[in-house]
Design brief:
Structural class of chain A: alpha+beta
Helix content of chain A: 40-55%
Strand order of the largest sheet of chain A: 6-7-8-9-10
Strand content of chain A: 5-15%
Shape of chain B: elongated
Number of helices of chain A: 17
Shape of chain A: flat
CATH topology of the largest domain in chain B: Rossmann fold
Mean pLDDT of chain B: 85
Number of domains of chain A: 2
Low-confidence stretches of chain B: 1-5, 232-243
CATH architecture of the largest domain in chain B: 3-Layer(aba) Sandwich
Oligomer: heterodimer
Radius of gyration of chain B: 38 Å
Strand order of the largest sheet of chain B: 24-25-23-26-27-22-28
Mean pLDDT of chain A: 82
Number of helices of chain B: 35
Distance between the termini of chain B: 60 Å
Radius of gyration of chain A: 32 Å
Distance between the termini of chain A: 52 Å
Low-confidence stretches of chain A: 379-427
Helix content of chain B: 25-40%
Structural class of chain B: alpha/beta
Order of helices and strands of chain A: HHEEEHHHEHHHEHHHHHHEEEEEHHH
Number of strands of chain B: 34
Strand content of chain B: 15-25%
Largest sheet of chain A: 5 strands, antiparallel
């Protein structure tokens, strides 16, 4: 039930326009609560949605757009009083504008696919309440509906206010800190740089995005939680770079970066969003936690080593389980549920078979096969990002330098991982 | 391919590096160009672009087109972040490296905000920054050379402002850094997460809101002026006593104050009158701050609800009786950054808090607590201050019971905002005694705020005997000299007396330390003197304080310790805890027990069953890796005090310093991770002067280092220090030695006359070669490692010499041995050469010149006794790998290094294998001058005249069981 002042004013104005439809109006609010209103599309002068009852109909409310003189009048009203200017600058829609923004007779018409024939059918009533919810979240929805926008009205208010005050500065508000004043080149070259004997201070652990004073507008699809987790990941990587000398993670391929995030986060939801099989991603994430990117590569890559290369692994596993047969295939040596894999840098990795997830990397790698069998995974906690290789071997598997030295190429915008990236997860 | 380009990138840091900003920020880049030939880059420069820069010209500066290698921000971040100040790079590259690290630290703290760029693209910016962050950036700007920001700006002869460039670079780095390759796949976000730019002008109002709320450059100030009757100095009352309405009105003046320059305060009046001027000085945003600030006031303070009714609000009034409504909302107003200022006679500044770290008097005669007592004597408490004077218990009670956010104290109102109230309730932190001592010595204390988790520095006051203890430790400084010690059969030099006194004082207080004198200055004898002192004093003081001394050292030095202990402190029983049948059952309280790091690794528990008075870790750099098993095992053994000995300057590698001092004085330097983050990295990577100073202050009482060049030391040192280094044989050498002796003695016994003499000489030669290295005896060229005790000892010596930057001469009678030494040490990466009789005069002179110049730091000489005059005065170390048994001949070889023109002390090391013929003869030479005088020529002829029994005594191997 919408409770904000503007939302109630909107509902009151609709009720005034359709006095016979009180009952239908109130039913409309339950329809919104039941989730029957979907696919809302808002554009200047109209708002439409899909309403679900026995069948789905598309309903549209047309609202007359404000004319130029009407918009100018809006601005005038705001500029008249400091209180309304203050309200506008503070992000609110001043209530003084209600009679100018809310629709009166002749401003509103309903267009519904249903065959009810009444002026305000229940579908439209539901849509009216949906608008009220939007208005609750952001009163400027009403202004957008009437063909204006918050930035437009703010700019104009400021323009006129400044004109009245006699203000003549250049507007540099688009620049975060004002305009670059420049400095004399000759003076700059004359100055002798002083030695820097300071360092950036680092807290005991990574920080987070501060609680934002205001939420992004509802129609942008930006969720504050997403911004927070993005910044949290960046903060953790930056902290590790400075405290532990790890790399930025920017050099990873897209697939590796997904695994890196999955290693520190929610595998299920990441699998869902990227379209990767959840079990495959879980195994990859476990490999990353145990051995960083090289561990993930050990999970993924198969190759044919030269003739004797597997001997140390065979020997080590034979020592472990003397009376069983050791099976070899490509770069793997297996006994029962334990497998040693040899990577192309000569490191051995121990995998253990999980009934649901397949082969899981169990511990950091080692150039000595016997050691790989005996080390334990020291990290129950999330692994470091991209690199360095926990065993110290060089990490050759990075994006090619060409990709790095150029500026990033524009993205196609597709939300799904391309086939090539998906291939990365088939081990 | 990537690795090649990685190294190519690091080469680029030798060139000048200029930042070129772009819109959106992540599209910015660095341009690398050659200052010598800015017109063209040599070599394979793949992505060049031309850039217009202002370069210095004959008169002033000139606009020049420069060919630059473009480096995107994403490519540069990793490499610049790890560019340490000790690496070779241009000044501008170092400056941008510092900016990169600063930007990363801001990202690490979460100080970023989403933004819409001037052209409407989605981007991130680094904001808001607090005063200390801005301080750091200003320091970086001061270190930045002009070429780093030399892009052409608008007007004639102007370039980009350096602070703007730095802020823009921080924005660019954050903008790139946040967008990892899969960021936009994983979250639902497209904008702000994917690398390609999106136009988002519709987000401008929202990001402007964020900027106003979080990055405002100014704030609204309500300046309160009291009604006339209160200016007589009485504290304001809650209820007005006067009935005259006019007289009980407070006036509020609205003002705007700049955040970056708090002295810049402008009346709101001026904004209405002359807005251009005001907004030019405070920035356009100040207007929004004024309006939204006033609006907040109208909503929060009911009596002021109408102040926006005026067309030009600049002042307001509030009745004294309504003041509560304002006072109760001060916290809420502070939350929206509205500051209320009161006349200081009426309202005091806020309470400050300080941690008082104190200790009661100890039991020692000086009243100072010893390390053990400190735990029970420590007293830690908070105190709260107003105007610098602590609150009494009664005043604290008033504060604790306050129901409102202001309390009357000492004739004024004192505000209790939420942070202050939280501070009043902070529990007392738990400090270990060593932490308390570290704080008393100047280490900063940071506590994490309970709610935000942010750490902040805490003011501290040291009191009681703790302050005295800190002062005492800082004064130790090695000034006092110990007097003569009973039971010590040695003459101590003055600086050694100071060293012993320093160690004695530290140990008496129950602390440990690190003696880091240069090699050759006599660390061994100083420790033995310390032991002798504790033996002497334990006879009449309480014996429970003293205990046996445990010396842990590398295996090759064990013999040496035994010998010197027997020689200098003959009254002390010396035991070796080593070998298969080792035991500790005979250890008395005045004993010296010698063991190796290897044994400590396996037998730490057994060793811990003895109540040691002192543990000495010789060549402590052996436990420089704090995670190694040796280091951890060593820590398990407890004792009254611990002294670490090392000849290498530990202050250069801070993690090693941590490892050594954390063993000697546990807890002094805090946990390793914190030490790395707050001290080691800032000092080693950034050269942070503040951190360097704090570390020196903290460590100074516990670290004593003298070098041979010290003005106080040098005159005391004899020109030549001689030491015999007794080393063990390896098992292979033992086998060969015994076999040779057995066979040859049998042959000798069966021969006579000249034949016999010949056989004896052959035996001697063989034994000498075996003790040198089995490979020399067997005619092999390798392998060399781990087969000879002398070679191992030589490795240690050369390590210590290079760490101290000293040059060394190694003498051997055998060219073959010389070649083996050359191969072995070359394989270890040393700059070593061999000078022998087969070289031409010119070749010899070339080697000598290079040695004197320092190009080579180690020279092996294999010359028959005599030889042409060579000037090798650059050497401060001489090693006689094998010996001429005629002292005069040996001295002559030594004197090649020590000559007129040599102004440094030369240390001569003589390697002697234990229990062998070398050992016996050395002893003979030392003890029997008569025999020495009889020796002529190469000095070995007389051996041929010994009878069988005497010969057997001389050559048979006596190895300690």
């Amino acid at each position: 039930m919408s409770s904000g002042r503007w939302a109630r004013a909107w509902l009151d104005s609709i009720a005034a326009l359709y006095p016979e439809s009180q009952a239908r109006l109130s039913r409309g609010s339950t329809w919104v609560g039941d989730g029957r209103v979907t696919d809302i599309e808002l554009s200047p002068g109209q708002i439409s949605a899909q309403i679900w009852n026995t069948d789905a109909v598309r309903t549209t409310l047309h609202v007359r757009r404000l004319t130029e003189p009407q918009q100018a009048h809006l601005v005038e009203v705001v500029v008249e009083q400091t209180a309304t200017i203050a309200a506008l600058l503070g992000g609110e829609l001043p209530y003084a504008l209600d009679s100018l923004i809310l629709p009166t007779a002749g401003d509103l018409s309903v267009d519904c696919e249903c065959s009810s024939g009444t002026a305000l059918c229940t579908h439209a009533a539901a849509l009216v309440h949906a608008v009220a919810s939007l208005v609750d979240a952001d009163p400027y929805t009403l202004l957008s509906l009437r063909g204006s926008s918050r930035s437009e009205i703010t700019t104009n208010v400021q323009r006129i206010h400044h004109k009245r005050l006699g203000l003549t500065t250049v507007d540099a508000s688009h620049l975060p800190r004002g305009a670059d004043p420049g400095t004399s080149a000759a003076a700059a070259y004359r100055r002798e740089p002083q030695p820097l004997e300071r360092s950036a201070s680092l807290a005991a652990q990574p920080g987070r995005l501060r609680p934002l004073a205001s939420a992004p507008p509802a129609d942008t699809g930006i969720a504050v939680n997403d911004l927070s987790s993005l910044v949290a990941d960046a903060a953790q990587r930056a902290w590790a770079m400075l405290a532990e000398g790890t790399t930025s993670g920017l050099e990873l391929s897209t697939g590796s970066d997904v695994v890196r995030r999955a290693a520190n986060g929610d595998v299920e939801s990441i699998a869902g969003r990227t379209g990767i099989d959840a079990n495959e991603l879980a195994a990859a994430a476990a490999a990353w936690r145990a051995g960083g990117e090289p561990g993930f590569r050990a999970l993924r890559d198969r190759w044919q080593p030269p003739h004797d290369a597997l001997t140390p692994g065979i020997d080590a596993l034979t020592d472990l389980e003397p009376d069983t047969i050791v099976k070899t295939r490509e770069n793997t040596v297996t006994v029962g549920a334990i497998q040693l894999r040899l990577d192309e840098q000569g490191y051995w990795w121990r995998f253990e078979h999980d009934p649901q997830l397949g082969w899981l990397l169990a511990a950091p790698g080692s150039p000595i096969a016997a050691e790989a069998l005996s080390t334990t995974n020291p990290n129950g906690a999330p692994a470091p990002n991209g690199a360095p290789n926990p065993n110290g071997a060089p990490n050759p598997m990075r994006a090619t330098a060409a990709e790095l030295l150029d500026n990033a190429a524009p993205d196609s915008g597709a939300l799904e991982l391309p086939e090539s990236d998906q291939q990365e997860f088939k081990s | 391919m990537y690795d090649v380009l990685v190294s190519a990138i690091s080469e680029l840091w030798q060139l000048n590096l200029t930042f070129v900003s772009a819109d959106p920020a992540r599209a910015s880049h660095f341009g690398a160009w050659d200052p010598v030939s800015p017109g063209g880059l040599g070599g394979a420069a793949e992505t060049t672009s031309d850039l217009d820069l202002m370069l210095p010209a004959t008169r002033g500066t000139q606009r020049t087109t420069v060919a630059t290698q473009k480096i995107s921000i994403a490519a540069a971040i990793d490499s610049l972040a790890s560019l340490g100040r000790d690496q070779e790079a241009s000044r501008s590259a170092h400056a941008w490296a510092a900016v990169t690290r600063a930007a990363l630290s801001f990202v690490a703290a979460g100080r970023v905000l989403p933004w819409v760029s001037p052209q409407g693209w989605d981007t991130w910016r680094v904001d808001p920054l607090d005063a200390s962050d801005l301080d750091l950036l200003r320091a970086i700007v001061r270190a930045m050379p002009a070429e780093a920001h030399a892009t052409v700006h608008g007007g004639r002869g102007t370039v980009a402002d350096p602070m703007f460039a730095v802020r823009a670079a921080c924005d660019a780095i954050a903008d790139c850094f946040i967008r990892t390759p899969a960021a936009h796949r994983i979250s639902d976000l497209t904008v702000f997460a994917n690398p390609s730019p999106t136009r988002v002008p519709q987000l401008r109002p929202w990001v402007n809101d964020l900027a106003t709320a979080h990055c405002a450059t100014s704030r609204l100030v309500l300046r309160m002026h009291p009604p006339p009757d209160l200016l007589t100095g009485n504290a304001p009352t809650c209820e007005s006593t006067t009935s005259d309405p006019d007289e009980s009105l407070w006036t509020i003046r609205f003002q705007l104050q700049s955040h970056s320059d708090p002295s810049l305060i402008i009346n709101a009046d001026d904004y209405w009158r002359a807005p251009t001027e005001v907004l030019d000085r405070l920035g356009r945003q100040a207007e929004t701050v004024l309006f939204t600030g006033l609006r907040s006031v109208t909503r929060l303070v009911e009596p002021l609800a109408d102040l926006l009714g005026s067309a030009t609000p600049a002042t307001a009034t509030i009745a004294d009786s309504d003041l509560d409504a304002l006072l109760d909302r001060l916290d809420d107003l502070a939350e929206v950054d509205v500051d209320v200022r009161w006349p200081s006679e009426l309202v005091a500044p806020q309470l400050e808090r300080r941690l008082v770290v104190a200790s009661a008097d100890g039991d020692t005669t000086s009243g100072l607590p010893s390390a053990m007592d400190l735990a029970s004597l420590l007293d830690v408490n908070w105190e709260f201050l107003l105007d610098g004077i602590a609150l009494t218990a009664a005043e604290l009670a008033v504060v604790a019971e306050a129901k409102r956010s202001v309390v009357p104290l000492r004739g004024r109102w004192v505000r209790l905002d939420r942070p202050t109230l939280d501070r009043l309730r902070t529990p007392i932190p738990a400090l270990t005694p060593t932490m308390a001592l570290a704080i008393a010595l100047g280490a900063p204390l940071e506590l994490a705020d309970e709610i935000t988790g942010v750490e902040e520095a805490v003011a501290v006051r040291i009191a009681g005997s703790l302050a005295g203890l800190a002062t005492r430790l800082q004064d130790l400084a090695g000034e006092r000299e110990i007097g003569d010690i009973a039971g010590l059969h040695a003459e101590l030099r003055d600086y050694q007396r100071r060293g012993v006194a320093w160690m004695a004082d530290l140990c008496d207080l129950g602390f440990g330390g690190c003696l880091a004198d240069d090699m050759g200055l006599g660390k061994t004898i100083q420790i033995l003197a310390l032991h002798a002192r504790s033996m002497a004093s334990s006879t009449h003081d309480d014996p429970s304080k003293q205990g046996p001394t445990l010396v842990v050292c590398p295996t090759s030095l064990m013999n040496n310790w035994e010998r010197e202990a027997a020689r200098f402190v003959p009254g002390a029983p010396v035991l070796r805890f080593h070998g298969a049948h080792r035991h500790l059952s005979d250890v008395t309280s005045d004993a010296i027990v010698i063991t190796s790091y290897g044994v400590v690794r396996t037998d730490a528990e057994r060793l811990n069953s003895v109540a040691w008075g002192l543990i000495v870790a010789d060549e402590a750099q052996h436990v420089k890796n704090p995670r190694s098993r040796s280091a951890r095992a060593l820590r398990e053994i407890s004792s009254g005090s611990r002294m670490a000995l090392t000849g290498t300057p530990v202050e250069n590698k801070l993690v090693e310093l941590w490892s050594i001092l954390d063993w000697a004085v546990p807890g002094l330097l805090g946990p390793l991770e914190t030490f790395r983050r707050t001290t080691a990295l800032p000092i080693e990577r950034d050269g942070d002067a503040g951190a360097t100073r704090r570390l020196q202050q903290l460590v100074q009482p516990f670290l004593l280092r003298r070098t041979k060049q010290d003005p106080g030391i040098a005159p005391e040192l004899p020109p030549k220090i001689e030491r015999d280094l007794v080393v063990p044989l390896t098992p292979e050498q033992v086998t060969l030695y015994r076999a040779t002796v057995d066979t040859s003695l049998a042959e000798v016994a069966a021969a006579q006359g000249i034949n016999r003499r010949g056989l004896v000489l052959k035996l001697l030669t063989g034994l000498k070669q075996i003790t040198n290295h089995p490979a020399q005896y067997l005619g092999e060229s390798g392998p060399l490692a781990d087969r000879s005790g002398k070679l191992e000892a030589l490795d240690h010596l050369l390590d210590a010499a290079s760490a101290a930057g000293e040059s060394t001469l190694i003498f051997s009678q055998y060219v073959a041995m010389g070649r083996l030494l050359l191969d072995h040490h070359r394989g270890q990466g040393r700059c070593i050469e061999l000078l022998h009789g087969g070289l031409s005069v010119a070749a010899r002179q070339d080697l000598v010149d290079r040695f004197q110049a320092g190009t080579i730091d180690t020279l092996v000489l294999s010359l028959k006794a005599g030889g042409t005059g060579l000037n090798l005065t650059a050497a401060t170390n001489v090693v006689h790998y094998d010996r001429w048994w005629n002292p005069a001949v040996e001295d002559q070889a030594t004197d090649r290094a020590y000559r007129i023109g040599q102004d440094q002390t030369v240390t001569v090391h003589r390697l002697i294998t234990e229990g062998t013929v070398e050992d016996r003869i050395a002893e003979l030479l030392r003890n029997k001058r008569a025999l020495a005088d009889r020796v002529t020529g190469t000095g070995e002829g007389w051996i041929g005249e010994l009878d069988d029994a005497a010969l057997a005594d001389l050559v048979e191997l006596a190895v300690a069981s």
